[in-house]
Structure formats: structure tokens, C-alpha cells
Specification:
Layout (H helix, E strand, L loop, with lengths): L1 E5 L3 E8 L12 E7 L1 H11 L4 E8 H13 L4 E6 L5 E7 L5 E5 L7 H16 L3 E5 L10 H11 L3 E5 L5 H6 L4 E5 H8 L6 H13 L4 E6 L2 E7 L2 E5 L12 H14 L4 H16 L9 H7 L5 E4 L9
Parallel strand pairs: 1-4, 1-8, 2-6, 4-5, 8-9, 9-10, 10-11
Antiparallel strand pairs: 2-3, 6-7, 11-12, 12-13, 13-14
Helix pairs in contact: 1-8, 3-4, 8-9, 9-10
């Protein structure tokens, strides 16, 4: 089983309008709610890949109740720690034709020390019984910044694969615990760590630093720009085919789900990378989030050409 951990979930209120004009009143053509948060998105995508998973999160207030109902309706298996304060919410405005998409995020959820302690205690028990654990999304406050680092330590203790996809002030602490695998957006990585990744040489150097620190695989995506990845001390680069992008929201989460899926099914590194890339690109071509089918992956994965950068893997001649 794959466990996804989300400590900053989101209730999305989605409105579809003809065209957003600043300063004017708008009447929605349709309105709906969606369960958001990076780890929850990963769980949804894994469901579409017919892969058993469990989403673990905080839920509280009226928004939390609505999120519970949405997760149940989607048949996303989940468990949570109840909080006194409201789960955060956001508004997603989708203009006619599917784009552009405007997102407004509300304030982060307020958590107490007791709620965080309960979350940590339960996390230990769940990690012990999973195969892969995915730590996804931002931290809602400094008080919660040590949840992911502690979770990575627990994963090491129980010899579980940990995948990290986060950003912000706690990223450095998370990386210091050497998760098995990381996935990051290039701009979020640069701003979180205050590093320069503006050219290939700097990118390759950084990937080698990650390997030297104990991180076995790393994937750095950058929208429609080339993706850089490392598998131990081998570096790879993949161009992203041009697509008719509608909304890239959740594409990084779809990519992370592809990596988890590949590991769960013992795919090769190349096939795992192609799976993640296919999911990310296909997700960006629609306004729905992390709802790509396995059949769609199979029809697009061969479009991605993976090349080595620097040292090449030696192969045995027949």
C-alpha cells in the first residue's frame, strides 16, 4: 500500500464563468466542490491507476466535513486527525473553454500542539504498515514543520521508501533527513533553498549533491522546460513535448503519483520517469486535477526521449 501524507489540505470551490472581468459581478454557469491538497491529489491519481493507497491528513470544521464527504464520494481511502479549527479553502475560477484558470487560496489551517502530536503518533503506526510513503505539499505553519522530517526518519526506521514533494522553509530540514526520492518544481526548489539552478551545469551539480547526501533518486520538473532526473549518480534529461495546456494545477502531483506507481510495480527507472511525465503532461491538458487513466499513459509514454548527461551507464556486450 502507498501512503500519502498531506498536512495542508484544501477544500476547493470551483466556479465556471464566461469571462473574468476585474471589478465586475459574475454569475457562475456551474459550481462544484473538489478535495484538494497535494497528497490528496496523489491519492486520487493513484486511484485512477488502480493502485491501493491511503490518504492521511488533518480535517476540521465545516470545510473538513465537506472534504470528508468528497473523499468518500470519490472512493479515496483516507484517515485523519480531527482539528478544532477550519480546514483551509480556496476558490478556483474556470473561464469558458477551460482556460485561463484563476485560483485564490485562503489562510492556512491553524493547528494545535496536541493535534500535531496525535498526528505524529498515528503516522508512526501507519508507516509501519505501508510500502511507500509520499510526503506532499506545504506546511501550514512553523509548528508543523517537523512532521515531514520526522516521517522520513520513521520510514528509514521501518525500511520503507519515502518520496518527498514539498517546498517552503521546512524543505531544508526534510532534505537533511535523506528521503529515498524527491520531486520538486525548479522555481519552488530555487526559492525555498535560495540556490541558483539557471543552467545545466548548476542543475547537474545540485543533483550530485543530493546523491552525496543519501537521496537515491531526484526529479526536477519545470513546466514545459526539460526535466532533469538522477538515479543514484547518473543524471538524465528529458524534453517535454509541446501540448495545448489548459491548467497545470496538480501536474506535479500527477508526476509524483507516476513515480510512486512505477516503484510499486517495479518498473525500470526509464519507464517510471516516462509514467510520471505522461501523467504530468496529460493533467495539464485539462481542467480536472489528477484524473488521468492508465490507458492514456500507455498511449503517450513513448513520446518522451530520455538522454544521459555526463557519465553514462555501462552495458554488457553480448
Amino acid at each position: 500500500m502507498i501512503l500519502t501524507v498531506t498536512i495542508n489540505p484544501l477544500l476547493e470551490r470551483r466556479f465556471q464563468i464566461h469571462k473574468l472581468i476585474r471589478g465586475e459581478n459574475h454569475r457562475s454557469q456551474s459550481a462544484s466542490f473538489d478535495a484538494g491538497g497535494k497528497g490528496i491529489n496523489v491519492s486520487r491519481q493513484l486511484n485512477y491507476l488502480n493502485t491501493e493507497n491511503l490518504a492521511y491528513t488533518f480535517l476540521g470544521g465545516t470545510n473538513g466535513k465537506m472534504l470528508k464527504n468528497l473523499l468518500s464520494e470519490e472512493k479515496i481511502n483516507f484517515t485523519f486527525v480531527q482539528t478544532k479549527n477550519e480546514t483551509r479553502e480556496g476558490v478556483v475560477i474556470i473561464e469558458e473553454g477551460g482556460r485561463p484558470v484563476t485560483t485564490i487560496f485562503g489562510s492556512n489551517q491553524i493547528l494545535s500542539e496536541n493535534e500535531i502530536d496525535e498526528f505524529k503518533n498515528k503516522l508512526r503506526k501507519i508507516i509501519e504498515n505501508c510500502e511507500i510513503v509520499v510526503f506532499s505539499g506545504s506546511s501550514p505553519a512553523e509548528i508543523a514543520d517537523d512532521i515531514f522530517p520526522m516521517g522520513i526518519e520513521i520510514a528509514h526506521e521501518f525500511d520503507k521508501i519515502s518520496i518527498l514533494d514539498t517546498y517552503g522553509s521546512h524543505l531544508k530540514k526534510c532534505l537533511a533527513k535523506s528521503p529515498t526520492i524527491i520531486h520538486n518544481n525548479k522555481s519552488e526548489l530555487s526559492s525555498s533553498l535560495k540556490i541558483d539552478l539557471s543552467d545545466e551545469q548548476r542543475m547537474v551539480s545540485f543533483l550530485h549533491q543530493l546523491y552525496d547526501s543519501g537521496i537515491k533518486q531526484a526529479y526536477i520538473t519545470d513546466g514545459s522546460n526539460p526535466v532533469y532526473a538522477s538515479n543514484f549518480d547518473f543524471i538524465y534529461k528529458t524534453d517535454v513535448p509541446k501540448t495545448d495546456e489548459i491548467d497545470s494545477t496538480g501536474s506535479g502531483d500527477a508526476f509524483t503519483a507516476g513515480i510512486a506507481y512505477g516503484l510499486h510495480n517495479s518498473l525500470s527507472f526509464d519507464d517510471t520517469l516516462r509514467c510520471g511525465l505522461s501523467l504530468g503532461v496529460l493533467n495539464a491538458s485539462r481542467s480536472s486535477v489528477c484524473r488521468v487513466s492508465l490507458e492514456e499513459i500507455n498511449s503517450t509514454s513513448e513520446k518522451f526521449i530520455i538522454t544521459t548527461v555526463g557519465k553514462k551507464l555501462k552495458t554488457l556486450e553480448k
